[in-house]
Design brief:
The chain is of the alpha/beta class and about 350 residues long. The chain contains eleven helices and 16 strands.
């Protein structure tokens, strides 16, 4: 299975910036929802939701429309970090997420108005969970040389680590201890503006339908999710979530209408019998399922940060719906959803 994702819709007139960005930015990892490693075009959309309560649909929530991009580094003939940052600034992005703490990129982001999200690599989680000295060293060498001139505001400990069966239980159970050590290191160095979290895919849920039945997987619910939510709540951080409506739609095209997944449904709605909420699109359903799962563990008020979303603009011949037209429709509509 080969899928390409991008947030950009085809312009009505040729725009070389868009072509360059489509060609040169690649995301490093696979979406867990895809169930296998697939290449992603990596200018994604990011925004965060405020004051979301599991008692109301996110369609009624207060939304802060911060549009951002995910800056990956896999590919050939990539533009230099300074050129890449210049390109990103022309897009009027407000946030940039990188999948590590690359010095050249962080230097290029100095003295810009871009909020920056950096990431602690998955492979360091176990060791950092066991050593405060190692956590302090990572912050001292990866954050301090650039902060505050580079507006680092988010630090993600790993990427979709709970989706990887290969990671094994040791990494899963090391995640929250590593987050705690990183937060402690930031405090040690007097840094209080950086929120610590981790990115999660939708497969952290064991049940997502109806949304009011949202439940975290039994293998991580008590030992990982509950202490994580306690940490996020105590530090006033976010639940960072990657949401791709394409995947549930592609698995059930009979019962889930394409227009519903693309924010295009005019007369199609879904009423949740458990909550009484009515949904007009699949995206809202998916996010609410996570909110209800958090409520089930006693944390209904944690804010959700949509770290990634998009639609595939290409795929194999048998992957219907993965095309540039649907990608354009989804991306335009999700932007409208959060900037209206």
């Amino acid at each position: 299975m080969k899928l390409k994702f991008s947030i950009f819709s085809p312009p009505t007139t040729f725009d070389p910036r868009v072509t360059l960005l489509h060609s040169l930015f690649f995301r490093h990892c696979c979406s867990a929802s895809a169930t296998m490693a697939t290449p992603f075009t990596s200018l994604f959309f990011a925004f965060w939701l405020l004051s979301i309560s599991a008692s109301v649909s996110i369609s009624n929530a207060e939304i802060s429309s911060l549009v951002g991009v995910n800056y990956g580094q896999l590919g050939n003939n990539l533009p230099s970090p300074p050129d890449s940052v210049d390109l990103i600034k022309t897009l009027n992005a407000q946030i940039v997420k990188i999948y590590d703490a690359t010095p050249e990129i962080l230097k290029s982001l100095k003295n810009t108005d871009l909020r920056v999200s950096v990431m602690l690599p998955n492979e360091l989680i176990i060791n950092i969970s066991k050593s405060q000295n190692l956590a302090d060293h990572w912050i001292r060498t990866s954050i301090l040389p650039y902060y505050p001139q580079t507006k680092i505001r988010y630090l993600l400990v790993g990427n979709e680590i709970l989706s990887s069966a290969a990671a094994g239980n040791e990494t899963w159970f090391s995640l929250v201890p590593a987050m705690r050590r990183i937060k402690r290191s930031l405090k040690t160095y007097g840094i209080r503006k950086i929120k610590v979290g981790t990115s999660s895919a939708m497969d952290v849920l064991q049940s997502s339908f109806p949304p009011s039945n949202g439940t975290f997987r039994s293998d991580i619910s008590d030992r990982v999710m509950k202490p994580m939510l306690q940490f996020l709540n105590r530090t006033k951080s976010f639940f960072f979530l990657d949401v791709y409506p394409y995947f549930p739609w592609s698995l059930d095209t009979v019962n889930i209408k394409l227009d519903y997944a693309l924010f295009e449904a005019k007369n199609v709605t879904y009423s949740d019998p458990g909550s009484g909420l009515t949904y007009t699109n699949l995206f809202d359903q998916m996010v609410d399922a996570v909110i209800f799962a958090m409520k089930r563990l006693g944390y209904p008020d944690i804010r959700v940060f949509i770290a990634e979303t998009g639609w595939p603009n290409a795929g194999d011949y048998d992957q219907i719906g993965a095309n540039i037209y649907n990608a354009a429709v989804y991306n335009r509509n999700v932007v409208k959803r959060v900037t209206a």
